[in-house]
Write a structure and sequence with these properties.
Blueprint: H1 2-6, E1 8-12, E2 15-19, H2 24-36, E3 54-58, E4 61-65, E5 68-72, E6 76-81, H3 90-102, E7 108-111, E8 120-125, H4 134-140, E9 144-148, E10 152-154, E11 160-162, H5 166-210, H6 221-230, H7 239-243, H8 252-274, H9 277-299
Antiparallel strand pairs: 1-2, 3-4, 4-9, 5-6, 6-8, 7-8, 10-11
Helix pairs in contact: 2-9, 5-8, 5-9
């Protein structure tokens, strides 16, 4: 569900949408839980990538809180800000701080930010702020922003869809995705069946060549093709492959290799005949989660 992973925001005549990005791990965990039960208790969490603060749900909206630390003395309060709420840039925040400074709400500020690493040092006089608790400081410096959920997207049918919750988007995605996993199982099962048929047929042909029950001598290509297809059951698409094989390939080692192939293919076929799309999807998701977590560790 890309709109939940990346977030989306926009407005048009009569409609608007405002969906924050969400934690990929929580989305994956929700989907894994859904493969096991129709009732899912996993919470899908809003999360801005590379944002050091918090995103908390508030009824029909969410609040983005920037991280900061406070050092208090008798006459001053020093605030160190290491990130800004989404929507702010250094330029817009500098403008706001200058306004506060001009109104004597703060004494000074220093912007030491580099690239995407925010770093603000702000000094507030204790006489210029009535309450010195962290919530009052957060409010003064606009270190939190609130946003209203608006879950409007384009549906799978190409129509405008207003969703009741993030979970309803997830449920729709799950029902859309699962049939493709089932289709993959069917394709793999069919492919294994054909591969097994080819390996069994080739093993029989190879054995007959070794035991001299079959001779290439005095055979026209047309007769050779007919025998490979009708006597040994070589599939049409593999006949050219067999015809072009060097005679030296038909050895006892090749027979053993084909036996091993046949055994492995049968195991895979047995697995896919008993598995379900739910199990395979959960396995895919767990693999995706592991790779994502490894990527995060490396990236950090």
């Amino acid at each position: 569900p890309i709109e939940l992973l990346n977030g989306v925001k926009g407005i048009a005549t009569g409609y608007a949408t405002n969906i924050p990005p969400h934690d990929p791990v929580s989305i994956i965990d929700w989907l894994i839980a859904r493969t096991k039960s129709s009732t899912v208790s996993v919470k899908i969490k809003p999360k801005y990538y590379s944002f050091n603060g918090t995103v908390e749900e508030l009824g029909n909206g969410y609040e983005i809180k920037a991280p900061f630390t406070v050092t208090k003395s008798r006459n001053h309060i020093k605030v160190h800000i290491t990130d800004l709420p989404r929507g702010y840039t250094c330029n817009t925040y500098d403008t706001y701080l200058r306004k506060l400074q001009g109104n004597d709400k703060i004494e000074s500020f220093a912007n030491n930010s580099r690239m995407n690493n925010f770093d603000y040092q702000i000094v507030i006089g204790t006489k210029s702020i009535r309450n010195t608790d962290e919530e009052s400081i957060r409010k003064l410096l606009k270190l939190s922003t609130t946003h209203t959920w608006n879950l409007t997207t384009i549906s799978n049918e190409g129509k405008i869809q207003e969703w009741q919750s993030v979970s309803s988007i997830m449920e729709e995605f799950y029902r859309f995705r699962l049939p493709y996993v089932k289709k993959r199982i069917e394709v793999l099962t069919d492919s294994l069946k054909k591969t097994l048929q080819y390996n069994i047929a080739l093993q029989k042909f190879c054995t007959d060549v070794i035991e001299e029950k079959f001779s290439f001598k005095k055979l026209s290509e047309d007769n050779f093709r007919k025998i490979l297809k009708e006597t040994y059951g070589i599939p049409d698409e593999k006949i050219n492959t067999v015809i072009n094989m060097p005679v030296r390939n038909f050895t006892a080692d090749m027979v053993k290799k084909l036996e091993k192939n046949i055994s492995e293919i049968k195991k895979q076929a047995a697995y896919y005949s008993t598995t379900t799309e739910e199990k395979e999807y959960a396995k895919d998701l767990q693999e995706l989660k592991n790779k994502y977590l490894d990527y995060i560790k490396t990236d950090c």
